[in-house]
Write a structure and sequence with these properties.
The longest helix is centred in the N-terminal third of the chain and has 14 residues, at 15-28. It contains seven helices and no strands. Helix 3 runs antiparallel to helix 4 (52-62). The chain is an all-alpha fold. The chain has helices at residues 5-10, 15-28, 34-44, 52-62, 64-68, 80-84, 87-94.
Length: 99
């Protein structure tokens, strides 16, 4: 992912935190699978107090290739435990399927 400190600041991230974010994003850039990388970004970096424009920027940059090829780009990738706690997970279990 090629994101500049200036772009992070423009999207609402405080200047003092932007350098740290760039370093973390570079480390996460080694994850080849876009979905796995997004799951890590979403769980380790993105929180409700981070401006939505940052969420959107990282999502778009993470899935740049997949979006160009019109492939699926999941925003939420739940764990098996999370799936099992949903109504859909309960229904799946009731019907005898596994998650």
């Amino acid at each position: 992912m090629n994101i500049s400190i200036e772009k992070l600041i423009e999207c609402g991230l405080p200047r003092r935190g932007a350098g740290k974010w760039i370093a973390q994003l570079q480390e996460l850039g080694i994850i080849a699978d876009e979905s796995a990388r997004w799951k890590t970004i979403a769980s380790q970096l993105l929180t409700p107090d981070i401006p939505f424009s940052i969420h959107e920027l990282l999502y778009e940059q993470n899935y740049k290739k997949q979006r160009k090829e019109q492939l699926p780009c999941p925003a939420w990738i739940p764990s098996v435990d999370e799936i099992q706690k949903t109504h859909l997970g309960e229904w799946i279990k009731k019907e005898g399927f596994s998650c």
